[in-house]
# Entry
Amino acid sequence: MVEEGLRNELSRQNIFLTSIQELYNWGRRNSLWPLNFGLACCAIEMIAASMARFDIARFGAEVFRPSPRQADLMIVAGTVTKKMAPMVVRLYNQMPEPKYVIAMGACAISGGPFKRGYNVLKGIDRYIPVDVYIPGCPPRPEALLHGLITLQRKIAGERLTGPERPRHLRELEPSEYPIPAYGPYDLDPPKNTELWHPKPFVRDA
Amino acid sequence: MRDPEKSSELEETAPPGLPSFQEIRRILEERVEGLRLEFIPNPAAPDQSSFCVPTEFALETARILRDDPRFALDFCSNVTGVDWLDQTVEETILHRETTDEGERTIKEIVRRRRPGFLEAVYHLYSMRARRGPLVIRQRTANRIDRVRVASLTPIWRSAEFQEREVYDLFGVRFEGHPDLRRILMWDEFKDYPMRKDYVEPDDYEYEPTPQGEAAAKARRHYPYGGAR
Amino acid sequence: MEEHPYLFLAVLAGTALVFCLTPLLIARAWAAVFNAAKPGEVKQQVYECGVEAKGDSWVRFHVGYYRYAIVFLVLDVEALFLLPFAVAFGGLSWGASVVILLFLLLAVEGLVWAWKRGALEWA
# Structure
């Protein structure tokens, strides 16, 4: 293992050193292919981000795939209704590893302005693991790009081996999550308790 | 509160471009045998008084409203539902009394219990004659088991999805609807979410900034019973 | 030693094979060392639009579809002939114009005939 300072010194002399891990992460983070689907108004901002003015292609994520089999990033852009939630989870399950999820907008994070509605899921993270949350209603395309860069940083920091390696490299971690069923009053189960651990609030009264 | 004097006054007004409510009542009751329309005045700002049509005459009345050239209401722009819970209604009754000092009017306020019911409200326009809206309503007998009204989809095709929506969210059953299924909620859903006594599922586990009712619901999920 | 005149073909074929197989082998090796495959029931479903898959991916099409497809194919090929006709239109002799118009007329007549027989009706 060459240390950081020496490598910087060498790169100044036009000698580039890398490791498999870095090469792997470099390749993956610069070619994130998002799944082509939108749920509500945030999707319009996502479309704007892919057009010429904001140009998501600068970050290698312009290849919106129409099939989950070819995508490795799911941008949950918009309100997830309880009727739609099983479809979203099923699409996530059908994506090949490694896969990442960006929850775009207040609705995908927590239900947003429709939080107290009877048919809105209070955050897609109740069913699938979310990597980056982008707040906003809707977030501007710059915010989406920032979220994408944040995800790229996260990927750059992933380890290939060792106990800290990400979920998709661990053999026993699932690649599919249970799809909720339509119940008589709510989705069944209303959340994936193995996945979703909200911070318990301890407050005065 | 309903003022009987105001009510008859309002009945003399007319929906935009149409005959007065009195005239509409006269025409309809003449043409449909046995029909008794109930006038529901709306003295508030929207100024949209309406008729409550008995369910058994609704289809026939609707056909006349569509086909009679005096109305020509060919477009049903909106169907919606209202949930009326049991409530106490105050009614003012006017008595005329003759005393030694002459005749005088006594106002008496009567409180009576009105059992709850569901309502389907139709907003009708005329595209041909460019007028409307005329608002008509149908009421169910109660909120529990006698929740049937007549479907007006055979008259106005545009009512189909909206009647399905009213069925889905309020539980009003439309007799004669070609395809009465849930439209927004999933088919397995049992409740009617827009009813006033609807109890939503308790998913308030994570409320970072709860306020009002949500705070009370979220408190049930706090450790130590909500307070330290 | 004299080179075989067709040696370059063998070299090209070999290169093409190596070019295809190497990434596949690398991917295989990568999966074996780092990234275990995780197939699953939902992941392997035939349908991929979020709705639950029903039935098999091998389904029979209605025979009407083939009539439809053949009519499309005929007119598609006809369009292919129209392109050179349009390019050379200015310099065409009378005879050639009449011939191509006759051809067009035949194709259109076929379409009308198929239309009348209900070949364009779906299901």
